[in-house]
Each structure stands twice: as structure tokens, then as C-alpha cells.
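Let us practice reading a record.
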Amino acid sequence: MSLLHCIAVHNLRLPVANGTRLKLVPRWARRKTSMALAIEKNPAQMFPSDILDEPVNGTLWWVAHTKSRREKALAEFLAQRNIGYYLPMVKVRQPNLRRERFSLLPLFSGYLFFKGSRDDRYAAYTSNHIARVLEVGDQEKLRTELFQIARVLEAREHLSPCDFFSEGQRVRITYGPLKGIEGIIERKNGSCRLVLTVSAIAQSYAVNIDAEMVAAV
């Protein structure tokens, strides 16, 4: 049996057989790969499943700004303590030469929305997954905005990130699977998009629509 020796490249030490070259994988690439979970191993995006249907009645919505790549860990922590949350995620194809593989990644990177008392807020902090918690001024507005995001994701419509929109012509979709959803219409290069905003974190996403599908609010 040939002896093994080690080489060091960028602080990464790998065993190499004499006369054999091995492909070196940078540390950042290994970390990114380790984040890709099989879809069935991800936490539920919404807990409980009807949390966005419930009116704000005593318990409050909070916005958790998580530490790097801790959104899913926080979701699992909250579910174990029966604290409701919403973590919108999108299906993303992962590069793999041998087979097609997909994973779920947070739509709003670094953010999770949860609902509970001030004691629940304190409990969430003890998870060690949170950098800070943002208070929500307009509770019903946040619930409505998240409900609309959830509707679009459930309809499997593609959401594209766009500039934050807070003003513009507001319209409502009048028919189809997204009927009733409201947003700001954006017309550009002959196409039409409906911009959906989550004001609490100043982020917007857009979904492509037909102009005849909407009416002014």
C-alpha cells in the first residue's frame, strides 16, 4: 500500500496518494453545498398551516432578523415550542452532475416572521439564531402582505426580486388563481408585472401578469 501524505492549500488539508491528483474543494463551496437539504427534510414553511388566516387578536407579529443561514434552524426551534411562524421558501435547482437535485431556500434571506406574545419573543431570542427582532407597527398590513406572498407561492407562480415599491398605481387581480391579490402595477418593455411588497423589511417581489387581469383599486 502506498504511503499517504498531506498537502495544504488555502488552509485546507487533504490526504493525497503518492502520484495521484485529487480535486481540491474550497471551504466556501463546501459550506454552500452543506446547506442544500433534501426538500422533505426542510421545516414547514408555515406553522400552524392556517396562521396567515387568523386575524391579529392579542398575539403580535414579529420580524426575526436571523444570523447567517439560521432561518430554518429558527423555524424548527419555534415549532418545537409551539410558536407560530411563516418562512416563505422557493424551490431552487442545485448543481449536480449525476442527478437533478432541488432544495428550498428562504425567499427573504435572513428573515423569518413569527407570531406570539412578548414572552414568545424572549423565547425566540434564546435560540441563539437571531441577530435582532423588529417590532411591527401595522400588524394587519404585515399579515395581508404575507398572505399575498403565500398565495403566489402556492400557485407556483415565479416571483422575481425587484426594487422596493411603496408608491404607484394600485390594482387588484380580477380573475385566475391569484384573484383578489392587490399590488402596484409596473409596465416595462411591453410587459406587465404586479409588485408585492413586505413593508416591514422594505423588500419587493414581482409576478408577471396580463394587463387585462387587473382593475384599479
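A brief commentary: The chain has three domains: 4-34, 37-136, 156-217.
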